[in-house]
Fold this sequence. Notes:
Blueprint lengths: L1 H21 L14 E2 L2 E3 L8 E2 L21 E3 H15 L3 E7 L4 H10 L21 E8 L27 H15 L3 E3 L6 E4 L12 H5 L4 E2 L4
Parallel strand pairs: 3-5
Antiparallel strand pairs: 1-9, 2-4, 5-6, 6-8, 7-8
Amino acid sequence: MARKTKTLCFSLCNLGIAFTCNAQQPPPPLSPSPALIEHNLVNVGMIYPPLLQEIRYATMCNFTGQVLYPFPTAFVHRDVAAALQKVQKELKAEGLCLKIFDGYRPFSVQTKMWMRLSDERYVSDPNRSKGKHTRGTAVDVTLVDRMGNQLKMPTGYDDFSDKAHRFSSKWTTEERANSLKLEAAMKRHNFIPFPFEWWHYDYTGWENYPPLDISFESLARGVRTTVPAQ
């Protein structure tokens, strides 16, 4: 009888251990959701004197061959818009104007571009810097006259040859003069010229602005908050 009791106790103990091991563990705590922030992106159409817009990424006429934006509008951070307005006022006195090709670019679009062209001279790696256009702090611009005719520049937009580089020796005298005129006006208002693309300028302190992935559609609807791109 004593032997049977010991055997029964041992079996129950084993079962108890099994029950303990198989008991459902509490779920891990949920990570806090990213906080909503004011994106402070504005339509460049608010700038006066107005910029000429040629938004290539709303068409198939770009290096990806795909339509990346739902409609042809440029957005920038409001700090950038204020600086561009100063550039515009200065250029107007000379009978000139900025034409903008691109401003804010959603992080998801930046990722698509990187998959198409993984060369940091021309497309920021979203896995490293998360981009500059994604913050609304980078603009792609050129100069036009009062009739909207583009001044002669070293290359066309999104030309990924070494002639597009600012230190290229292949520029003509006219191309260099026009590019330097644009560069001087942008630098006077806190824009930094990008070395590999004569058209690309970053607003000073761009790294202090959060990368974003808010859609153009949301911006057009007037949505004012979003979460930073992860």
